[in-house]
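Following the same procedure, backbone shapes were mapped to integers, as reproduced here:
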Amino acid sequence: MKIINKLQTVLHKQEKDFITSLYYELLNRKPDTIGYKNHFYNLSSGVSKISVISSFLLSKEAQFLYQQHSHLTLQIKGLTIGSTLQKIFAMGDKLFILSIYQEFLNRNPDVNTLKKHLYAFKKGKSRLHFLKEIFWSDECQTFLEQNLTSDLIINRIKQLLDNKKNIKTDLN
């Protein structure tokens, strides 16, 4: 499963499961109490789930994990987003760019865009900065939000139907 699809799955979870899933998927570990409480507080205070994902994805801990090429994380059951990014960060620049595009945008960059990114890397652009640009691109955000919006609409319709059933039961 591609990273974008895993993120969509995580986005659909309720707050507590959402935060726990981010720890497992992006950091390959169980949540620590302080971090969990901070992220839960942020969500409760109105910070968007996508912003919380970004804070995990671009954290110093995640960056350290992604750059651990010598011992890829294998202790986690199944392939997590973190272990996938760890493998991608170990690739050469061209394969790195192509893989990030495939994993987050489900497509390849056009030839000129690929050349532009390769040139930016030669000039010192960091891979984490590139990852941040792709994640926050309109294309990626629209894809994540559309699927989240669809799920919210479906859940709201289910709630309304359940309420309607409950009203009929109460009237009888």
